[in-house]
Amino acid sequence: MLDALRRGATTWVAKILLGLLIASFAVWGVADVFRLGGGAVIAEVGDTEIEATAFQRAYTRQLQAMSRQMGQPVDRDFAVALGLPQQVLGQLMSDATLTAAARDMGLGVSDEALAREIADDPNLRPPGAGSFDRGYFTRLLRENGMTEADYIADRRLFSIRSQLTEALIGGLTPPPAYVELFDRYRSETRSIEYVVLETGAAGAVPVPTESDLTTWFEANKGDFQAPEYRDVSVLAVTPETMADPTTVDDAAARAEYDRTIAAFTTPERRRVRQVLFPTAEEARAAAERIANGVSLDAVIADRGLSLDDVDLGMITREEIVDPAIADVAFSVEAGVVSEPIEARFGGALIEVTEIEAEIRKPFEEVKDEVKRTMAARDADRLVADTYDEIEDARAGGATLAEIAQRFSLPLITVKTDVTGLDTRGDVIASIPQSADVLRAAFSSEEGDETDPVRAGGGFVWFSLDGVTPAQDRPMSEVRADVVAAWTAEQVSDQLADKAEELAEAVRRGGDFAALAATAGMEIRTAADLTRASQAADFGPVGLEAVFEGPSGHVAAVDGHGETQVVLKVTDVTVPPFFPEAADSTQIAGQLRGQIGESLLTQYIDETQKALGTSINQQVLQTAIGTPTL
Predict the structure, then answer these.
(1) What confidence score (pLDDT) does residue 88 get?
(2) pLDDT, mean of residues 307-332
(3) How far does Cα 622 stand from its chain's mean position?
(4) In the listed set 357, 379, 406, which residue is the last one of a domain according to the structure?
(5) For 96, which of 48, 195, 207, 401 could close a Cys bridge (C-beta 3.0–4.6 Å)?
């Protein structure tokens, strides 16, 4: 196929086509390049089918990319919670929609144009490769299970979709007025003066009557519900639970200690002053001066160096690059200037001013630690063996309690809410890998056969033994909490009323500073606030209020915590707008992209309505559950 393309094009561009095709694997990704034949259909757009294998490959690629970004493997449940399967399938369906629409319009691309398009794309040049490498290209195709013909066909579809996309949004230019408004929104600054009303300014709160509490509790009963609790039995098989240090005798531990002695040794460190000379002869001359009574400090000064220039600090032998200098530095006595040293690049003199002796922990001090480490290492093998045996026992119908007894493993039984708190509200610390176990336990039903949860180098099995539904508590049980919540609400309401009273007085022309002083509050100021500023005394809601009106605008808003803030806009500054400025050009580019994306999304949505779409949820769930890694 590639040879045919090469013959069909007459320009030099076609001759380098092979070398430029390779990088498109990275540019378009698996979703565009790999279209595997055979197998179940996961979705349809009009007459275009999307196969489950194509989805699986694209989904796996996204999982791997997300794992790299997060620095740790992303499991299926987390990916599903983020909606990753729907995002991947949505992109595949969007591509299929554009392809179908382009074909209906009769769009196409010639071999020569396709070759030129690929060759002119700077993203398609492999790093460091200036020409086509047949071996690299063939290997890349083989590793990803596709042929040259498949590659060319898929790149052709991408080109056709690009023609349609370019026709739809390629010439978009945001109106200058829109760019100016956006620039003003971003760059406008405001200055304010404001006061912060603490909860003490709310005044006295009346003692609630029984009727007050009852009425309020009935309206807010849901806030005091007892959460759903689940009875969960947990069995953990990890290196920690399987490790038995008592099986390691002292002789074996001593041998391991001797083998890993460096781990229990803090090496000797010395503070070294090193004076380097261009030649060994110059070093010998300096040594003679010192022998005749000249101080090393004077020699250092004569060389135009400061004391900091020659101080290597407290270092170990391994930190000195030159072996000759290292040998002398760790053999000379403190306070004695060394004999001249023939170093790698000339000569040197050394003086040691401080010594920290090597510290080696004795065997008896670390014996237990060594045994634990050895036992944990042996436990890795035991974990694998025990996993197989437990799974066999479960397959035979054994309960976790029976399995725990058979293998002499501790069985943890808890009553927990979804956050890992017991019925007293205390954290249950005994659940290993608690976040994952709780998530799985609260996603299960009684009687479900659940998979073990991975826990570091081991596994955690659990069984759901019972469910206590969430239920309302009587007020007598939560009376103290009800009184506290009612009182807090009264304080909040009264404080908000005080803030609004002050704001209204300022709006009527009152002197803000005088009114604040009368109320025992201090005027504060904030200058040059933008809509992206982080205000110290109020959050996003308060910042939004700063930009709600003109200069002189007054507002009362919620502050941080339980506070209220009354603010007044004292200055509004709108920088001049220059359409040709770099910032304006950048804004125009951003808006162009946003408008284009919005229009393209609308086009795809309407086209899908016209063509008709369907998703096979059963195939989707199967594909999600078994990604091809």
Answers:
(1) 93
(2) 90
(3) 28
(4) 357
(5) 48
